[in-house]
């Protein structure tokens, strides 16, 4: 990856850069700021608590240490950054950075659309914008406090109009979409599918915990769930070694990325479980057809595409239409890799584009926006199993140009052109 856009730090030189400020929150709503300043846990408008004892943190508005960014997406001059509520002390789960503000290398997150309105969201992992000026997400509704989780509201798809910064839809999933009490913990990504008509949009929500894909139709305002063996994890790939922590996970289907439409108007949906080194596919014609689940040939409609290589467990991936390239956020090798869909998928056709044991530890999100690849890395395993060193820089956001990244790699199409 060519450019480090943002880090949780100021300056460039170790002996002169400032420490990260733990006492800064940006409010767009003066009333909300005034209300917060009167809270009993607030000390002169600041809160610098960094404890990780949940009993001490309960009820606190802002615990700087606990704000672990997970998702990143650029929409125009705004960079949306999500902070799921996996601990106490997170003021807003959906935030943004104004990219026109270049004064600080580590700008403060601003609650979206405002602190007061952001309170309607409980916990969001990742967002995706569509070509119709809307921002989509899943609100899990779950406060994921270790040993004390609370389902504050039902999990739902939420849509914001980016022109008016207002919430225009909250669709609560049906009971048939959520097969178990722990399902909301796995609703960590959403993919949007539109073919010209903004009202005829579909959302595909991967469920990594109970291994399914939930499909939502905006026109019908209805949802249904698909199940398949390919949505589950591969136990052979379950052992991970990240950020100095060795552990096993069992996350299933995690990310879905779409190609351009074919002659039938449907796209190829590439998907993979996070705990897997394989890639799979299915036509969106299958996903959009709720009745097809009863077909005797249903399971044969899904395909194994190939294997990406050792330690290639991946969170998110994104497709670039002009080059036919898919980019992967590889947690297993602290890297970003690529594969051109015009070639067979095997390790020899996968290129490592950027790799860093520290600065790209656990790339939690990756999104292709135009000709740019955006990546978030957040050292999540150390946060979960040990403790982040607040004297180090744990969170990074990267931006890279698609053509520069794949140039002279196996991912470059035969005639690489920017036109």
TrEMBL record:
Major localisation: secreted
Record's keyword terms, sorted: Secreted, Signal
One Pfam family this sequence matches: MRJP
InterPro entries named in the record: 6-blade_b-propeller_TolB-like, MRJP/yellow-related
Region ranges (Disordered): 34-55
Highest taxon listed in the record's lineage: Eukaryota
Cellular localization per UniProt: Secreted
Stretches with biased composition (Low complexity): 42-55
Any one annotated GO CC term: extracellular region
Entry's family note: Belongs to the major royal jelly protein family.
Alphabetized PANTHER family for the sequence: L-DOPACHROME TAUTOMERASE YELLOW-F-RELATED (PTHR10009:SF10), PROTEIN YELLOW-RELATED (PTHR10009)
Protein name listed in UniProt: Uncharacterized protein
Organism per entry: Euphydryas editha (Edith's checkerspot)
Organism lineage: Eukaryota, Metazoa, Ecdysozoa, Arthropoda, Hexapoda
